[in-house]
Write a structure and sequence with these properties.
adenylylsulfatase activity, Histidine_triad_HIT, HIT-like, HIT-like_sf, five-stranded antiparallel beta sheet, HIT family, subunit A, about 25% strand, HIT domain-containing protein, about 20% helix
Length: about 110
C-alpha cells in the first residue's frame, strides 16, 4: 500500500520527497520514465473525484512535484501527467496519485 511506502515499510525507489509529497518509480513502468507522485497525507483524497476546496493546495503541490520529477528524470521537454479516477478510469489504488510518464513518444488520444 502507498501508506507503507510512505512509512518506508515497503522499499521504493524514491525520486523526490518533501514534507507533503513523495515521488517514486512505478514497479510496472509503462514508459522509460514512470514515476508516481502521491500526497503523504491521504486526507480523504482517494481519487480526484473526492477533491474538496481544502485539497487545492496539495493538488497544486502534486503538479509542481511532477514538474520537478520531470526535470530530475531528464524529460522536462516532453512528458505526460496522468491521474486515473475510478474503475472506468483505470484507477487501481485508492490513494490519489499522479503518474509522470516520459522518455518515449506519447500518443494521442491516450487509450
Amino acid at each position: 500500500s502507498f501508506d507503507k511506502i510512505i512509512a518506508k515499510e515497503i522499499p521504493s525507489s524514491i525520486v523526490y520527497e518533501d514534507e507533503k509529497v513523495l515521488a517514486f518509480r512505478d514497479i510496472n513502468p509503462q514508459a522509460p520514465v514512470h514515476v508516481l507522485v502521491i500526497p503523504k497525507l491521504r486526507d480523504g483524497l482517494t481519487g480526484l473525484d473526492k477533491a474538496e476546496p481544502r485539497h487545492a493546495e496539495i493538488l497544486g503541490q502534486l503538479l509542481y512535484a511532477a514538474k520537478v520529477v520531470a526535470e530530475k528524470e531528464g524529460v522536462a521537454d516532453g512528458f505526460r501527467v496522468v491521474i486515473n479516477n475510478g474503475a472506468e478510469g483505470c484507477q487501481s489504488v485508492y490513494h490519489l496519485h499522479v503518474h509522470v510518464l516520459g522518455g518515449r513518444q506519447m500518443k494521442w488520444p491516450p487509450g
